[in-house]
Amino acid sequence: MTKIAIIPARGGSKRIPKKNIKDFLGKPIIAYSIETAIQSNLFDEVIVSTDSEEIAEIAKKHGAKTPFLRSEKNSDDFATTFDVIQEVLEWYSANDKNIETACCIYATAPFITSDLLKLAEQNLTTNQFDTVFPVTRFGFPIQRAIKKTNDAGKMDLFQPEHLNSRSQDLEPAFQDAGQFYFFKPDIILEKKKVWTDNSGIIEIDELLAQDIDNETDWKLAELKYQLAFGN
């Protein structure tokens, strides 16, 4: 039985050119995901799924494997995380390797630690979840979220019944931190999705997560990383 980490890293990034290998405080951002996965000692293999020879070379330099280049079908803007996972698992199956557990780690997730990965694997096993992933709490109650009802800017509430509710009385809500998914491959392939009706979450501090979709996000991520880890 084999345990693997899968790091998706497509070459074609439009908003941030070469996003997955862009320098992040001294080294390619993908290196953080690769090195943390290796240092956790949870995986027999850490592989990068990419359509780019350049990314493949950088991945190998930092200790990952790239046993094949991603298919053209799974390299466009519409390919999902599940599509990438499925392709990798099918490749392993075709090469007579049975995957016991796996973790899909995003290439732009420098905040991940070995301890967090270990906690996720423990949670997956102990609680018999299909998938476990980190989340952060919304800073403002979503029950009092505001919407714009016309071009002039007229507002309304999504849930008007909570207009006068105290924030501390409202149920906390969380969002996917966009870092990794620890999962049981057989179940994910059967259900054809990463989130299932039996998924578990681990709450992390908002300082330890940052979506990186544009240059401003990138700068915020570097600042957060320095605050969190002192580098």
From TrEMBL:
Q: Which UniProt keywords apply?
A: Nucleotidyltransferase, Transferase
| NCBIfam families in the cross-refs | PseF
Name the chain's protein.
N-acylneuraminate cytidylyltransferase
**Which molecular-function annotation in GO is an example for this chain?**
N-acylneuraminate cytidylyltransferase activity
Query: Which Pfam families does the entry mention?
Result: CTP_transf_3
Extract the coiled-coil ranges from the record: none
Q: Taxonomy-wise, where does this protein's organism fall, top ranks first?
A: Bacteria, Pseudomonadati, Bacteroidota, Flavobacteriia, Flavobacteriales
